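Customer escalation, tier 2.

The customer says the design service returned an amino acid string that "doesn't look like it belongs to this structure." They asked us to rerun it and document both sides in this ticket. The original C-alpha cells are below, unchanged.
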C-alpha cells in the first residue's frame, strides 16, 4: 500500500466503524476466532518468515510469537462476554432512585505501530485487544523485518474483515502519512526517539497513546539466591531472540560474595544452551540488520569480555557475551543494549544495587533473585518498574492476567488480556434516574437548613 491510498483506506475503516458493524459481540468473537485459526493454519509460513528475518528456530517462533498470539486471542474470546457487561457502581443517596454503571464502548479506528524484534506478536497481540473492544484497526509492521511484514500483509486479509482492518507496509513515508491522520487511539512499540514523534503527531489530533518502550532492565542477584537456577533463567531470558527483547535483563548486579560462582554458572548455561560455538546453533537467533549488528562491535570496544565477544556484521551475528564490570558512563551502560551482551556488575551490598537502579530511569522490567523476604520487600518498596519478576526472567509475559506496560521513560499505558480490552475501550459512565421522587433539596432558593441536610444525603 503506497501513501496515496492511505486516506481511502482510513475512510473505509471509518465508514465501517460508524455503521456499527464492529460492535456486536458475535462479530468480535468471530474475528478473534479467525486470529486463532490464522496462527494455527499459517504456523509454518509465519515461522519461515521469522527465520528469514531473525534466524528464529521454529520452537522459539511458536513460543514467543504464534502461540503467544493464539493464547491471547483465546483468552479474550472466552472472557469477552464478561468484559463487555456493564459494571454496576454505587449511586449516591442524593441521586436516588437511580442506577449507575460503567459501559465499555469501542473507541473507533485505532493504529498499531509494531517493532522489529517481535514483528508478529507485537502486531497481533495489541490487535486482539482492539478487536475485543470492537474497534477497526490499521496495523503498521516494521519495515526492518520485511519477510514477516509481507506475510502479515498477505495472510491477515484472508481471515479478518477487510472492511474493518488494514495492513500498511513501508517505512518512514508510510508511517508519517498515517500519523498525519486522526485516529482514536495509537499504540506504538519501539524506542523513545520515535515515541516523541508519535506523541507529537497524536497531540495535533488530541489522540490518546499507549507507548511500549524499553530501557535498561536490571537484574539483582542476592547472595541467598539459588545461583544454578538463576543462571538458567537469566540465560534463557537474556539470550532468547538474541537478546532483542524489550524486557530482557539488560545488566546484572550481583553480590560480590557469589559473583564468581554466578559468572561461571552463567557461562556454563550459555554453553549448554548453544554449544561451544553458538554461531552453529540452530537455536540462536540473528540480529535484525547489519546496522544493528555493527553497533555491537562499537559497544564492545575496550570492554572486559569474559565470554563471547565475536561480531560478524555481514552475517548479522553477535556472540552471547558476558562483560565484566563496565564503566558506568560507558555506552554499554548508558544505552539500552537490546542484544546478546550481558554486563555483570559486582556490588558489595544489595543496598548498593538498589541505589544503582534508583538513580537511573525507571525500567520496563526489574528482576530480583533472592530467598530474603526482607530484600524482596525493600526492592518492591523502593524501586519502580513497568513489571517486577522475582526469581525468574521474562516469564511473566505468559500471563494474560498481568498487564504489560512501562512507567516513566519506559512507556505509558498497558495491554494484554483485560488490560488490552480496557486500553482500546472508552469506559463510559452512565447514570439512569427515575422521574419519581424529585427532591427539592438541590434547587434554589438555598438555605442553611438545605446546606445542613446536604451533608447527610451525599
Amino acid at each position: 500500500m503506497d501513501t496515496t491510498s492511505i486516506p481511502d483506506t482510513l475512510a473505509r475503516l471509518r465508514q465501517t466503524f460508524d455503521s456499527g458493524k464492529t460492535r456486536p459481540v458475535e462479530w468480535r468473537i468471530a474475528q478473534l476466532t479467525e486470529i486463532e485459526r490464522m496462527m494455527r493454519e499459517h504456523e509454518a509460513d509465519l515461522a519461515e518468515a521469522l527465520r528469514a528475518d531473525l534466524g528464529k528456530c521454529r520452537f522459539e517462533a511458536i513460543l514467543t510469537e504464534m502461540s503467544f498470539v493464539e493464547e491471547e486471542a483465546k483468552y479474550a474470546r472466552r472472557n469477552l462476554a464478561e468484559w463487555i457487561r456493564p459494571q454496576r457502581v454505587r449511586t449516591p443517596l442524593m441521586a436516588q432512585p437511580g442506577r449507575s454503571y460503567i459501559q465499555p464502548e469501542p473507541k473507533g479506528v485505532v493504529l498499531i505501530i509494531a517493532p522489529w524484534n517481535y514483528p508478529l506478536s507485537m502486531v497481533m497481540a495489541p490487535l486482539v485487544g482492539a478487536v475485543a473492544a470492537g474497534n477497526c484497526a490499521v496495523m503498521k509492521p516494521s519495515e526492518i523485518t520485511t519477510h514477516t511484514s509481507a506475510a502479515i500483509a498477505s495472510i491477515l486479509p484472508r481471515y479478518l474483515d477487510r472492511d474493518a482492518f488494514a495492513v500498511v507496509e513501508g517505512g518512514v513515508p508510510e508511517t508519517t502519512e498515517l500519523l498525519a491522520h486522526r485516529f482514536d487511539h495509537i499504540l506504538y512499540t519501539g524506542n523513545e526517539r520515535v515515541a516523541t514523534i508519535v506523541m507529537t503527531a497524536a497531540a495535533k489530533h488530541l489522540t490518546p497513546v499507549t507507548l511500549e518502550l524499553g530501557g535498561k532492565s536490571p537484574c539483582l542477584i542476592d547472595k541467598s539466591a539459588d545461583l544454578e537456577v538463576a543462571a538458567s533463567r537469566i540465560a534463557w531470558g537474556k539470550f532468547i531472540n538474541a537478546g532483542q527483547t524489550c524486557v530482557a535483563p539488560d545488566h546484572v548486579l550481583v553480590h560480590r560474595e557469589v559473583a564468581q560462582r554466578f559468572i561461571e554458572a552463567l557461562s556454563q548455561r550459555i554453553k549448554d544452551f548453544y554449544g561451544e560455538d553458538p554461531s552453529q546453533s540452530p537455536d540462536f537467533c540473528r540480529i535484525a540488520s547489519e546496522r544493528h549488528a555493527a553497533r555491537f562491535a562499537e559497544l564492545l570496544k575496550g570492554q572486559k569480555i569474559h565470554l563471547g565477544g565475536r561480531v560478524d556484521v555481514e552475517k548479522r551475528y553477535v556472540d552471547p557475551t558476558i562483560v565484566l564490570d563496565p564503566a558506568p558512563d560507558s555506552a554499554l551502560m548508558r544505552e539500552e543494549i537490546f542484544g546478546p551482551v550481558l554486563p555483570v556488575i559486582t556490588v558489595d551490598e544489595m543496598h548498593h544495587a538498589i541505589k544503582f537502579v534508583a538513580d537511573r530511569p525507571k525500567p520496563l522490567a526489574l528482576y530480583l533473585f533472592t530467598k530474603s523476604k526482607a530484600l524482596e520487600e525493600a526492592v518492591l518498596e523502593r524501586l519502580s518498574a513497568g513489571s517486577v519478576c522475582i526469581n525468574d526472567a521474562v516469564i511473566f509475559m505468559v500471563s494474560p492476567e498481568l498487564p504489560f506496560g512501562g512507567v516513566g521513560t519506559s512507556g505509558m499505558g498497558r495491554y494484554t488480556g483485560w488490560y488490552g480490552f480496557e486500553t482500546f475501550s472508552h469506559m463510559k459512565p452512565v447514570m439512569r434516574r427515575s422521574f419519581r421522587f424529585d427532591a427539592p433539596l438541590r434547587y434554589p432558593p438555598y438555605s442553611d437548613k438545605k446546606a445542613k441536610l446536604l451533608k447527610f444525603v451525599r
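Tier 2 assessment: The sequence is consistent with the input. The mean pLDDT is 96. The chain has two domains: 3-213+408-430, 218-398. Sent an explanation to the customer and offered a walkthrough call.
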